[in-house]
Amino acid sequence: MSERKVLQKYYPPDFDPAAITRTRGPKPVGPKVQTVRLMAPFSMKCTSCGEYIYKGRKFNARKETTDEKYYSIAIFRFYIRCTRCSAEITFKTDPKNMDYECEKGAKRNFEPWRLGGGAKEESEEERLDRLEAEEAEKDAMGELEGKMVDAKREMQIADALDEIRTRNARNERVGKDGEIEVGAKDQRDLERETVEKEIEEAARRAFTTETGERVRRIGEEAEAEVTIGGKLEAKTTDAELMPPPSFKRGIKRKKDFSAALGIKKKVALV
């Protein structure tokens, strides 16, 4: 079993370090390739076996630096293999559209948000048509908003005018017919007083006998005026003859429950 950390190395007896020569070979020609760990940047379908590879799946890919450049930004190419048939799939970076472009081995799935973009270059005529359509749409929206604002303002003005007309009509009616309205109000007060007097007279007649005496209710304890020696004296009632209430605290005697419980008390002999 070898050591985990080698501290001493074995050198054979015929080892000659002078026999070792350093050779400087030419630098490798072509693109620089290195192995990296990456995730699939988009969902794709393998053209060889039809396997779907979803976005975010991890691969051990080969990264290649190409000679292409977008301005001064380098473009990289990645090589991965299908998880089912091991067919080679290639895609590269797209700095212009801030995306990735699938080259061979797979077909990128449909993505609705990429309909207006992508690697397809837009011509001058298409750009002008697109700008005109956007401006027309903006003008239509602005015109609709303006119409809504105008309609709202007209409604507010109409409401204010109606309120002013109503107030002016009310002021004119009060100014012309003010005295008439006051006289009608006095007439109504007089009629109300007359009706109240008639009601009081009918009640008085209902509670008065033919001789003119007032009818008393049963159980009513009223004071009767009696004339004695030319003076008026009030007849005393039973309530006045009763003694005044006393709030003096009395001594409460305890009740003897011994007989009820069957307890007999012993008679004292002494």
Q: Could you characterize the architecture of this molecule?
A:
A hairpin with a 6-residue loop joins strand 5 (73-81) and strand 6. The relative contact order is 0.05. This protein has helices at residues 124-176, 178-206, 238-241, 258-261, and strands at 33-39, 44-46, 52-53, 58-70, 73-81, 88-94, 99-104, 106-108, 225-228, 231-234. The strands form 3 sheets. Strands 1-4-5-6-7 form a 5-stranded antiparallel β-sheet, with no helix packed on it. It is of the alpha+beta class. It is built from 4 helices and 10 strands.
Return the string of H and E elements. EEEEEEEEHHEEHH
How widely separated are the two ends?
121 Å
Low-confidence stretches: 221-234
Fraction of helical residues: 25-40%
Task: Summarize, please.
It contains 4 helices and 10 strands. With 270 residues, it is of the alpha+beta class. The longest helix has 53 residues, at 124-176.
